[in-house]
Design brief:
Length: about 550
């Protein structure tokens, strides 16, 4: 077994087991730090530290990473530089403590001093860095770059929300975790916390010129300032280098950046036959601007630009009181698809702002007194799922399937209100956008889609229009089919907003607590989450086994 000398200046730190002192520099060997972390081998060095792979003897030799603060010779003669380096090392520990709740940021296990050296112990991420992946697989195509951005931008959004700027994003600091293929952002040694709001380039952090040339923007390298847009710039550089294979480590000159003209020329270096969509190219070009205020200012802006709303067309049917179609219209709606991973998407439809009368008139058949009094509600614009959440989406996010009727394209059922809230929270964490349950006013507004009839398709309901218990007809209509199970989403005609299964199939949870009636209900589209019976939450829409 080899024992490693932890003196950073040691010319050859490997020593035979059993030695008490290093046979090269004479330093007393410390094979186990804090009587717990046993150094196995060096991983590398750079910046202000050396990194080792270690075993945690208190956790059955679980693998971990030990980073040692190792000032260079030049720092010893420059007290200011040494002080700044020490500050940055200590900040890494502090940053990890504040950020470790995110699953794509390593967990900090310990931070301590021993034998006049500082050590940081953190989670080991088994996998490949993006540079190693490039070396093994070659250049990245558009699908890989889009997957990279979709995976990492939500993590950057989380970091920036904590008012932290990483400032050293590059392929070596992004690891593709082996167990789930997710990207993990590492090395927060030069991360900087901003104590002020980071909305414009005028709101900056303390000036410290750090970052990697060839990845860091000019404001960071030349002026020592950094913004969220600086991290986004570095991420874009990472993308174009992975697409072209042009790395400074491999080339004597930078083939991607024309210093004379002051612009990036990455398109000219793409491998032969590789095509990049105009959308992705425009996003990268904007991120690579030399001027911070000309870039996207947040990770969410980049996500939105990568997934611009598209339009889909559909047919809306209106029926008479006998269930016969009396009108058919072609409509369009805007939507975008959220990537949930594993090839699963979540289609979100834009619902325009508007005003409607919530509740039902007293003359409506089948109504209940809790639908009174009707009241006017103003609803801001929002996005809502095109379909009820299906089992494939639930499985991708939650890792389980509680449904009784099994099928990837069937709606998930047997989920509590708390389960649904947790699903939204996990999608938020996965995507960087805020997802939540609809407020009841939003749900009814989206369901009605501008209509005032009992159902969005007209004055009655039939089993050809929705999945419900057809043994119980609406009003005085005839009995119909009772399917006794859920049906695949999208099996029935949509409403005028392009939403499916707003009537029947499965109940749909809302944010609001239960109230006996609408007396005192908000009129601005907000959730009614005070008063009432907090032990119950609102659900709307009915289900496959419910009466119309």
């Amino acid at each position: 077994m080899t024992v490693y000398c932890l003196n950073p200046a040691c010319p050859k730190p490997e020593n035979p087991e059993g030695n008490q002192y290093c046979n090269r520099c004479g330093t007393q060997l410390t094979p186990v730090l804090r009587d717990r972390y046993r150094i196995d081998r060096p991983l590398g060095s750079g910046g202000f530290g050396k990194t080792y792979l270690a075993k945690d003897t208190d956790r059955r030799d679980a693998v971990c990473v030990v980073k040692q603060f190792a000032p260079t010779d030049g720092m010893s003669s420059n007290p200011q530089l040494l002080e700044k380096a020490l500050e940055l090392f200590e900040r890494e520990a502090d940053r990890l403590l504040h950020l470790e709740e995110h699953p794509q940021i390593p967990t900090l296990y310990a931070y301590f001093q021993q034998s006049n050296y500082l050590y940081l112990v953190q989670q080991y991420i088994p996998g490949q860095t993006l540079l190693e992946q490039f070396q093994a697989e070659g250049t990245f195509d558009e699908s890989k770059i889009r997957a990279l951005l979709q995976d990492l931008l939500p993590t950057l959004h989380f970091i920036h929300q904590q008012k932290v700027i990483h400032r050293d994003i590059k392929p070596e600091n992004i690891i593709r975790r082996r167990r789930d293929n997710k990207l993990v952002l590492i090395d927060f040694g030069v991360a900087k916390q901003s104590t002020i709001t980071m909305q414009t380039p005028q709101n900056t952090c303390v000036k410290t010129k750090v970052g990697t040339p060839g990845y860091a923007p000019m404001e960071q390298l030349m002026r020592g300032v950094a913004y969220p847009a600086s991290d986004l710039y570095s991420l874009a550089v990472t993308c174009v280098r992975l697409m072209t294979g042009c790395f400074l480590e491999l080339d004597s000159t930078d083939k991607l950046y024309d210093s004379i003209e002051g612009c990036w020329k990455w398109r000219e270096q793409l491998p032969s036959g590789v095509e990049i969509s105009q959308n992705l190219a425009q996003v990268l070009d904007k991120l690579l601007s030399d001027y911070p205020n000309q870039r996207y200012q947040s990770a969410l802006e980049v996500l939105d630009a990568l997934n611009p709303p598209l339009k889909f067309s559909f047919e809306v049917i209106t029926v008479n009181r006998y269930g016969k179609a009396i009108d058919r219209q072609q409509r369009e709606a805007e939507y975008f698809t959220e990537d949930l991973g594993q090839g699963i998407g979540l289609e979100m439809v834009r619902i325009p702002a508007g005003t409607f009368r919530m509740g039902s008139p007293e003359t409506e058949s089948g109504r209940d007194k809790n639908e009174s009094p009707q009241h006017r509600v103003k609803v801001p614009e929002f996005f809502i799922g095109k379909y009820p959440v299906i089992q494939a989406q639930w499985q991708a996010v939650m890792g389980n399937n509680p449904s009784y009727f099994i099928g990837e394209n069937l709606p998930v059922e047997n989920v509590s209100w708390h389960d649904a809230v947790e699903f939204c929270e996990r999608v938020s964490q996965k995507t960087g956008r805020v997802y939540r349950l609809p407020r009841e006013a939003e749900w009814e507004y989206a369901c009605r889609a501008g209509t005032t009839t009992p159902f969005h398709f007209g004055a009655t309901m039939t089993p050809e229009l929705a999945n419900y218990n057809g043994n119980y007809p609406y009003a005085k209509e005839e009995q119909g089919e009772y399917r006794k199970k859920t049906t695949p989403v999208g099996s029935f005609p949509p409403n005028a907003f392009g939403l499916y299964d707003m009537h029947g199939n499965v109940w749909e949870w809302c944010q609001d607590v239960w109230h006996d009636n609408y007396n005192g209900a908000p009129s601005d589209g907000s959730a009614w989450d005070w008063g009432g019976d907090s032990g119950y939450r609102m659900r709307r829409g009915g289900s496959w086994n419910f009466i119309p």
